[in-house]
Each structure stands twice: as structure tokens, then as C-alpha cells.
Amino acid sequence: MKIIGGRVVVTCPGRNFVTLKVETDEGIYGIGDATLNGREQAVVAYLQEHVIPCLVGRDPQQIEDAWQYLYRGAYWRRGPVTMCAIAAVDTALWDIKAKAAGLPLYQLLGGRSRDGVMVYGHANGGDIEETADEVAKYIALGYRAVRAQSGVPGLASTYGVARDKMFYEPADTGLPTENIWSSEKYLRHIPALFDKLRDRFGFECHLLHDVHHRLTPIEAARLGKDLETYRLFWLEDAVTCENQESFRLIRRHTTTPLAVGEVFNSIHDCRQLISEQLIDYIRTSVVHAGGITHLRRIAALAELFHVRTGCHGATDLSPVCLGAALHFDTWVPNFGIQEYMRHTEATDEVFPHSYHFADGYLYVGEAPGHGVDIDETLAARYPYRRAFLPVNRLEDGTMFNW
Ligand SMILES: O=C(O)[C@@H](O)[C@@H](O)[C@H](O)[C@H](O)CO
Ligand SMILES: [Mg+2]
Asked: Fewer CB within 10 Å of terminal CB in the chain, N or C?
């Protein structure tokens, strides 16, 4: 079998998605997600100019060799754009290999380790009461795990509180929206949110929270201590993590489980966090961390140190990424949880798929490959619209982390 070509499909059914389609001389094709929220066109150019020409003529079944070729051959290794492009190729080649074998992808990884993949949904509200009502809705839908994000008194906006309750889309068309942030106001507010949620719902439902990179290590340690009595499933992205060592300080002060990694693009971003057991869940995703081939390596390292997977799964990771992730989740021995921000109906129509939700779990289908396709005719109806993620400033105007 030989690769005869590759095409990048950019579509915007409510938000931008970038999809790589790799075609072979035997008529089998594979697709991979290449979406990097707010920087989509950088990956499009990388694929079209620097990757696809090198793929033509290669044997698509040599997945590892292709990965090594694109990683080592780049010379300028790692980084979100490079690793997103490699991820798209890797996912497409795994899709082809599984289709050629007539098997669902998880069978090529090592078979089922579980029936369903436990997922968490996103409840958010302008205040504690509204957030609690949203958590109730997710529990009623059958979710066993819910992330809770609430507006903060005194702040006009905050991460995770959306205009739309079911579909959270942070990116805006036009230039970046500027939000104002106050860690002091946030830290005063969040313990009351989880006090209310545990008081109303008890401890049956797993509760999660995403700080979204906004605290210092000592602030994160304080929040972790304040939340210990509420037994969170995890506290996510408590601080930015270029300095992996800074998590030692948080770890010294709190037993609240920590999750990190959606912005990571290689094992090197999390090697210290994992090997020193500074985190409990690694959030790396198929689309942003070099594809299934590299994600398996991260999970294998994590398994040695009692760290479990918790793949990122926001709306800006396409159904192609989610479909591939679910095959990974169905196989991986040290599975933790899968994020499941639902896609809109328009997006699901562009990306027909075989996975389905039931009783708090997502289930992959048995279709050969990763089970997700792209309807290019429908995709063409939604032209690309440049969009940016917001930026954050402190109340005194200082540039901060969004
Ligand atoms: O945990 C999450 O899902 C968030 O951190 C994401 O919504 C993140 O903000 C977006 O994926 C950024 O594009
Ligand atoms: Mg997050």
C-alpha cells in the first residue's frame, strides 16, 4: 500500500476545525485532527508545505517510522504546531492500518481494558446557585463526573462560564477579547461553590474543577487545602507548568488530586511531573501531543508512577480526536477519565461517528478504524473564520494567563 496524497480540510461549523485526510493507492483513507485553537492556519501551512510532500510514496503502515521521520526530520523538535501536525498524520495512519485490518482501532492497541469510557461534562453558571442547577442537569443526564465552573463575584467574566450552557466555545472571531482577572476574588469564592455542591449532591458524583493556569504555587496549595474536605476528583491546571518543579510546593501542602497537561505537546513537558509523582492525572491529548503513537509513550511512563490518563476533550478538539481518544481510552491500562464537551449538531453532522454516550460513559463503535469520518461536501459549506482565544489582564492592567 502506498500514500498517494494528503489534503487538509478546514471547516467552521460554529468553530474552526482542521482535518488531514491521507489517501492510499488501495482506496483506503485515514483522517486525523489537526486543530490548534486560535492558531489553526499555522498547522495548515505546516502540513501542506512541510509534511504532505514527504508522505507521498510512503507505506502508510509504517506508522512508527513516519512518526520518527517527522519528529527527528523537523530538526526543530517539539512545539504545539509541529506536534499537532505529527498528531494528525499519526492518527490518519492508525486509522488506515485499522481499516486495512478490518478492526476497530483499540484492537490494534491491545484490545479492550474496559467496556465504557467514563467521561465528565461541564456544568457552569453565573453564580453558585446556577452552577449547582447545571450540575443537577448533568447528573440527570447520567454523568458520573461533572466539572463545575462558576462566575466570580466582582469579575465580569471568568474561565469556563459560557454564554451557552451545553456548548462551551472560548474563541471569538475578531481580535482577542480582553478579560479581567483577580486571584484574590477567585480564591475567596471557590470553596463556597464546592461546599454548596457537596451539601446538595453528596459525594456520589465526582466533581472536578479547572483553575486554568491562574494561581501561583502557594495560592494553588492554599486552594487545594481549602478544597480537601470536598474530595475533588481533580483540580486542573492550578498553575502554569513550564516550571514542572513548582508543583513540589503544591504537593507538600495538599492531598487534592492534581491534573495537568492539555497544553503539553510531548513527553518532555511532563516527564518530571510524572516521575516525581507531582500530579495524579496527565491531560495530554491525541491531537496536541503527537498522536496515538506518542500518547501511548506518555501513558506508559505515567503508569510506572501511579499517574492516570485524563485526556483533554474540549469542543475545539474535533470528533476525529475524540473518536481516536476513545479507542486509546478503551485500551489504556491506567485510564482515569475522558473529558467530553459535547460538539454541536452541525459539527457532528460534518464528522459522522460511531461513538455514543450512555449512563455516564462513552462507547466506541466496532467500525474498522477510529470510527469517525468527514463529510467534505458539508464541510465546504462552513468557511474558515479567524478566531482568537481571549487574553487576561489583572485589575491593574498587568498581562496575565488566560
Ligand atoms: O479543560 C478544558 O477543557 C479547558 O482548559 C479548555 O476549554 C481550553 O480552555 C480550550 O481547549 C482552549 O482552546
Ligand atoms: Mg483545562
From this structure: N
Predicted local confidence at residue 119, as pLDDT: 98
342 CA → ligand 1 middle, Å: 13
| Residue numbers of the domain that contains 15 | 3-104
Looking at residue 343, its amino acid is H
Per-residue pLDDT of 118-132, as tens digits, reads 999 999 999 999 999
* Residue 327 annotated as catalytic: no
Question: 339: Cβ below 6 Å to ligand 1?
Answer: yes
225: left (phi over 0), alpha (psi -120 to 50) or beta: alpha
Q: Is the ipTM of this complex over 0.85?
A: yes
Domain boundary pick from 72, 104, 136: 104
The residue to mutate among 39, 147, 212, 281, having the most atoms of ligand 1 within 8 angstroms of its beta carbon, is 212
Domain co-membership, 262 together with 346: yes
Which residue's CA is minimally distant from atom 5 of ligand 1?
212
Distance in angstroms (rounded) separating the CA atoms of residues 281 and 120: 14
> Using a 6 Å cutoff on CB, does residue 40 contact ligand 1?
no
Q: Is residue 379 in a domain?
A: no
Give me the pLDDT at residue 41, please: 98
Cα of 210 to ligand 2 centre, how many Å? 6
Band of pLDDT at residue 168, cut at 50, 70 and 90? confident
Catalytic residue among 122, 206, 212, 327: 212
Q: How many domains does the chain have?
A: 2
Provide the residues around ligand 2 (an ion) whose CB is within 5 A: 210, 262
The reply to whether 156 and 250 lie within a common domain is yes
- The band of 149, judged by pLDDT with boundaries at 50, 70 and 90, is very high
Q: How is residue 369 annotated by DSSP?
A: B
The answer to whether 91 and 75 are in contact (CB under 8 A) is no
Work out which ligand 1 atom sits closest to the CA atom of 122: 3
Same domain, 210 and 331: yes
Question: Terminal CA-to-CA distance of the chain, rounded, Å?
Answer: 45
> What percentage of the chain reaches a pLDDT higher than 90?
96
* Catalytic-residue membership of 353: no
Task: Identify which ligand lies nearest to the alpha carbon of 122.
Answer: 1
pLDDT at 36 over 80: yes
How many other β-carbons are positioned within 10 Å of the β-carbon of residue 65? 11
What does the pLDDT look like over 361-383, one tens digit per residue? 999 999 999 999 999 999 999 99
List all residues 6 or more positions away from 150 whose beta carbon is below 8 Å from its beta carbon: 124, 125, 126, 127, 128, 130, 131, 158, 161, 189, 190, 193
Determine whether the shortest distance from the Cβ of 210 to ligand 1 is under 6 A: yes
